[in-house]
Design brief:
Structural class: mainly alpha
Number of helices: 23
Order of helices and strands: HHHHHHHHHHHHHHHHHHHHHHH
Distance between the termini: 53 Å
Number of strands: 0
Largest sheet: none
Length: 495
């Protein structure tokens, strides 16, 4: 009887210790994910800044007057500079580390907004936007790589979407603040947002993979132990990371041409394909011309209210993806995303076709807004966050920095091309033909997902790499989700 009671107490003690270890593990990973995701909030605010700021620059009393052409360049300078930042980010995350690269964007972000706030001419505004764009390119590359290497497979989907959630909160904050602040005060607010991110970045470690690639095994194990909790057994995971790094050492460091070798081409082309269909869905062009679309549809909604509606829908939709991605997987959400966007875009095209041909569509005046809202929801639950998340998952460790750099630059190049040519497309194909074209591209994206994109839910980075490259081929192990984090709901502090 005494022995039985002792065994029972021992079992309870072991279970309690395991639960405490899980709790600390959860807190560490959530802290690391939230911290780097604060940078995404800055990215979101910077990306959305021109939408409320440009109209404000031409209001009476403003020290600046911006022509339509100058405004176009102020808006498009960011994706152009982000393209350069994406290309520079790859060598940076390999040479100085993932954490240090992300941290290095903080001060330039502040400088960019201060430069805009103090601008006495359009050139100063453009310089500020170029600096911000470069940082956006670096950050959009560094964030998914950092999270892919630090978050456990069981919750990599849930926590990997935090940058999107906080990025959308930055967009929403900018839209709401832009209704009440002029462009100068809005820029001052933008300069304050990176400060919490800068402070918190000093609390989290560099990724274990980067430390090991620099032969700093002690620091790597210490970082992994911090991320998993001091009571967690990291021996097996650390051994797998070391093994993957050792296998990579037997190969030459690949250059850009080597990325298209037989071994690496598949994961790279999958990542670039996801980026291509993300931008060719027309999301940035549609958002950029939101007010114009509503006006052409006969809407009388205030332009600031339009952008706030877009921001709220975009922000809330991310929670749907956050709650489902580790339950349903990446591919299911991508199926739903591409199908929803295709249907809504084709519906929009059909509405404008009837309107342009003289039919009375006044009783369907609600249709463009409803289609637009569902288009945003469809994008936010799949093709918005998942290409970035999967970039950090499917790119092999040996080429992760270089390949992520190329994929990020490609994404921003597509963003620039689609945004700058949207007005020309409307002129050549008409509103209906343009939306039908984007809808057809979304259907092509659905086919691409079905036949080319692998499911990465619950798989370790090492297993995903073996499956895609064939190096050290073995069975891909499914990892059971941890119930303590898998059902994590967005906290008020993440909003």
């Amino acid at each position: 009887m005494v022995l039985l009671r002792t065994d029972t107490h021992r079992h309870i003690r072991v279970v309690r210790q395991e639960n405490q270890a899980k709790s600390k593990l959860n807190a560490s990973q959530i802290l690391a994910s939230l911290t780097v995701s604060l940078c995404s909030m800055v990215v979101g605010f910077a990306s959305a800044y021109t939408s409320p700021a440009l109209p404000s620059m031409n209001r009476p009393g403003s020290p600046l007057t911006v022509t339509e052409e100058e405004g176009s360049w102020i808006g498009s300078l960011m994706p152009l500079a982000a393209l350069i930042g994406g290309m520079a980010g790859g060598p940076l995350i390999e040479s100085i580390g993932r954490k240090t690269t992300i941290l290095a964007t903080g001060i330039p972000f502040i400088i960019s907004f201060i430069l805009i706030a103090m601008a006495v001419n359009v050139q100063m505004v453009m310089a500020g936007r170029a600096i911000a764009g470069f940082c956006v390119g670096v950050a959009s590359l560094g964030l998914p790589v950092y999270l892919g290497e630090t978050v456990q497979p069981q919750v990599r989907g849930t926590l990997g979407l935090l940058p999107t959630t906080l990025g959308n909160s930055g967009i929403l904050l900018c839209f709401i603040a832009g209704k009440y602040l002029n462009w100068q005060m809005l820029a001052i607010l933008g300069a304050c947002i990176p400060i919490p991110f800068l402070v918190c970045m000093f609390l989290i470690p560099e990724t274990p993979q980067w430390y090991i690639s620099r032969n700093k095994s002690k620091k790597a194990k210490k970082a992994l132990q911090w991320l998993r909790g001091k009571d967690a057994d990291v021996t097996q995971e650390f051994s797998e990371i070391e093994k993957a790094n050792h296998m990579g050492k037997n190969e030459e460091m690949p250059g850009y041409l080597s990325l298209f070798s037989k071994m690496y081409s598949k994961p790279l082309l999958i990542s670039m394909g996801l980026m291509l269909f993300q931008q060719l869905s027309g999301i940035n062009a549609v958002i950029f011309y939101t007010v114009k679309i509503f006006k052409e549809a006969g809407s009388t909604i205030d332009e600031n209210l339009c952008t706030i509606i877009v921001g709220i829908v975009n922000f809330l939709s991310t929670f749907i993806a956050t709650g489902l991605i580790d339950k349903l997987g990446r591919k299911i959400l991508l199926y739903a995303s591409s199908a929803t966007m295709a249907v809504t875009l084709i519906t929009l095209g059909t509405f404008f076709n009837y309107k342009n041909n003289g039919y009375d569509v006044s009783q369907y005046g609600w249709l463009p807004l409803a289609s637009f809202v569902f288009f945003i929801i469809g994008f936010a639950i799949g093709f918005g966050p998942i290409p970035w998340l999967m970039m950090g998952e499917i790119l092999p460790a040996k080429i992760r920095g270089t390949a992520a750099s190329l994929a990020t630059a490609f994404n921003w190049a597509c963003t620039f091309v689609v945004t700058k040519t949207f007005a020309d497309l409307l002129r050549v194909f008409g509103t209906d033909g343009t939306f039908w074209m984007f809808g057809g591209i979304c259907l092509m994206g659905l086919v691409f997902i079905i036949f080319c994109v692998p499911e990465t839910q619950g798989k370790s980075l090492e297993d995903i790499e073996r499956n895609l490259t064939g190096v050290g081929k073995g069975p891909v192990r499914q990892v059971r989700r941890m119930s303590s984090i898998a059902h994590l709901k967005p906290l008020p502090m993440a909003i």
